[in-house]
Amino acid sequence: MQSAWPAPLIGNPLRSRADVARMAEALLAPLPGLLSPGGARLRLGTAGAVYDSVAAELEGYARPLWGLAPLAAGGGQFAAWPRWRAGLLAGTDPAHPEFWGWPGDFDQRLVEMAPIGLALALVPERLLGDAPPLARARVIAWLRRAETQRPVDNNWWFFRLMVGLGLKRLGERPDTAAEAEAHAHIDGFHLGDGWYRDGPTDQLDHYVGFAFHYYGLVHAALSGDAATGAAFRARARAFAGEFRHWFGADGAALPIGRSLTYRFAQGAFWGALAFAGEEALPWGEIKGLYLRHLRWWAARPTILTREGLLSVGYAYASALQGEEYNTAASPYWALKAFLPLALPEDHPFWAADEAPDRPSSGIVAQPRPGLLLYRAGRRQVVALASGQASDRHRQAAAKYGKMAYSTVFGFSVESDIRGLERGCFDNTLALSDDGGTTWRQRGACEAADIREEGGIPILWSRWRPWPDVVVETRLVPAAPWHLRLHSIRSRRALHLAEGGFAIDRQGDDPEADAVRAEAAPGLAMVRAPAGLSLLCDLDGGRSGQVVRALPNTNLMAPRTLIPTLRGTLSPGRIVLRCAVLALPEGEANLPEGLPPLARLADGPLPWLRRFARRILRR
């Protein structure tokens, strides 16, 4: 039976510049017909966000420019440019019914000015053309509000600089004092080694690549400011060597943190390096990281609605996974990935032969974001994480506080805190003081660091689900496994549940679940067409359970099972130790037909137990 699902990306090999241009064109194709009569607004849905509906419709107009502008700068054709030109003139005209409104402090309109600034910097003739002087003056007056209105104190400071690039291309002189203020804030966010924090919090996620470095490299390439350009380039070079470890052999990026609905913006950093002519890694490696990532996304038609529009979600549509600032137009931030289309075919980036994946050897410690990364199997990257949880955004504990994140299995967000099926506690330790009705997991840590014990880096953290409950957690990579060691001191009785990696429970037949789930004392395991997920208690004191998570909670698969270990704690102290393994399809080679514990008894468990005891004694 032929699927009715749109697949404009399927069949595109994504090996060349022309292939990438076709991908951009396919994603942009449905949009012109949805523009408002004046061209200034594009409404893709009716769900609200924390900002007003006019700003949301401006978002729909502006975000396609992340892809449209470089496509045009590189000679690509797009028949609907006159609609976007008319929209800019209407949206900045206070007398027009589609006026966007004057931007205020902390206003979403400041965000959407950034792609307009880029488009004016790259292809002003496409966006302004032969606009009358009065209309041109209105556009400039509207954009200049970016110089006077206060942005949110994070990556938003870059929007002032992006607008400045457009103003300079129009022959205007930006406010140098306003730009200096923006540079001062941005410099203050740099932690070293190419890592930025996104404002006053400690969260370090994909905003480092698709925001800070993306804007910094665009600024370095277009501003003519040699001093700041040199700083942005140096930071990007340092970051490239670290960020490459966030990508698996198949091109999948590590899903961690917020704004994951921006999808292949995760690979925009590699394209920005090319745009700025910054060979931070050999061009063939950069090209490989970039193209493999686009191919990974192109193989997932479920990121599109039936109308061919990008949806809110990750590997499929799920509003539950989004943020409070996501509208239906927000995912078009993904078009940032098309920046290198502004480069000619003979640019070294496009001319280079794509280099194969270059996996790291052993454990990669990244102290800035608090991660230990390793390869579990041929294509999967697993990141052990501690110390980055933020309470600023929706479902922050799931997006920053899990103990492990995977390029293959993703992570799950909670539906609510009532029950394990709703909490979806994959790769975390959840605790309940009401008999298992409501649960708490690790959020912000009191302290966390990377330590070396026995020559092996270990992630240590201390956190308190309640003021009188203290948990110290050690996460130990032992590829393809990892170990978790928890020391809990509590003044209250607790129920404990520790989850492994969530795994897709649906097989090839959409009407049947082709999985095997096993639970026994000390072990929980799921084997499915998607692979294997296993959690084993190293002391045997906990019972196994396979939790059937509520649908649409996991980023990668809409229906999942979570192997889980259950236990209890009377007031006092307990030490928990477990070994965790997840391998994708084709790489899960545990033998069939043996009782669960016997299956592992002659394998890695004795070594893992000895290793865990040695670590715990240190």
Structure, explained:
Pfam families: DUF2264, DUF2264_C. This is DUF2264 domain-containing protein. Residues 16-356, 370-587 form the DUF2264 domain. It comes from Belnapia mucosa. The protein starts with 16 loop residues before the first helix and ends with a helix. The chain has 618 residues and is α+β, with helices and mostly antiparallel strands. The chain has an eight-stranded antiparallel β-sheet, covered by helices on one side. Helix 5 (108-122) packs parallel to helix 9. It contains 19 helices and 19 strands. It has two domains: 17-351, Glycosyltransferase (Alpha/alpha barrel); 364-617, Distorted Sandwich (Beta-galactosidase, Chain A, domain 5), CATH 2.70.98.
What is the name of the CATH class of the largest domain?
Mainly Alpha
Structural class call reads alpha+beta
Could you estimate the helical fraction of the residues in percent? 25-40%
Beta-strand level of the residues, as a percent range? Answer: 15-25%
What's the N-to-C terminus distance? 60 Å
The main pleated sheet reads as: 8 strands, antiparallel
Characteristic terms for this protein:
618 residues; alpha+beta; Glycosyltransferase; Beta-galactosidase, Chain A, domain 5; eight-stranded antiparallel sheet; five-stranded antiparallel sheet; 19 helices; 19% strand; elongated; DUF2264_C; UCP014753; DUF2264_N
Short description:
Helix content is 31%, strand content 19%. The chain is an alpha+beta fold and 618 residues long.
